[in-house]
Design a protein that fits this description.
177 residues; alpha+beta; Immunoglobulin-like; 9 strands
């Protein structure tokens, strides 16, 4: 039961990275940026460990939005998950792409408290973000232990269709929040 809750907590932590983004979307005043891609793909291996791939893209509408999205913070629990950040870049309004230097990605404790030593933040600073630019990236959360122990045992081939993958994504058309 506790492990099932850790899986739900993992998804909650992953999605909490954009809680502020959702609040800004709901805010009647313009936050200065728009979310253009926000997709989760979840898969499980044969031992029940999950891998969550989170693709995201934000576009700065004005200078206020550019300042707001230039740094992104993603929380995770280092005892439960490994976190990789890949394909991080700024797509300039004219189409040029600027890759994020790996020195602009920091990983640090979320708190100095000894009680939460496993809670960490991945901080990504995007370079030269201006109005009209988009930031994008992919985060890969890989669980270190089984989320659903015993649930992915060999079934003798009874369920051969795509039981190893679950898509939990949301794709929005351009212009929709």
């Amino acid at each position: 039961m506790m492990r099932r809750m850790s899986s739900a907590l993992t998804v909650l932590l992953v999605s909490s990275a954009f809680v502020a983004a959702s609040a800004a979307d709901a805010n009647p005043s313009d936050p200065g940026w728009r979310r253009t891609v926000h997709r989760y793909d979840v898969s499980f291996d044969d031992r029940g460990r999950s891998t969550i791939v989170f693709n995201f893209e934000l576009q700065a509408v004005d200078d206020k939005g550019a300042e707001a999205i230039a740094q992104q913070i993603f929380p995770y629990n280092s005892s439960a998950n490994d976190l990789a950040s890949v394909d991080l870049s700024v797509v300039k309004a004219d189409g040029r792409t600027i890759a994020v230097d790996e020195r602009a990605v920091r990983d640090q404790p979320a708190s100095t408290s000894a009680y939460s030593s496993e809670e960490r933040h991945r901080i990504i600073t995007y370079p030269q973000v201006a109005a009209g630019d988009r930031i994008k990236g992919r985060l890969i959360y890989a669980s270190k232990r089984s989320d659903f122990a015993g649930e992915f045992a060999d079934d003798g081939g009874a369920f051969t269709e795509r039981r190893d993958r679950a898509d939990a994504g949301l794709t929005l058309a351009d212009g929709l929040k």
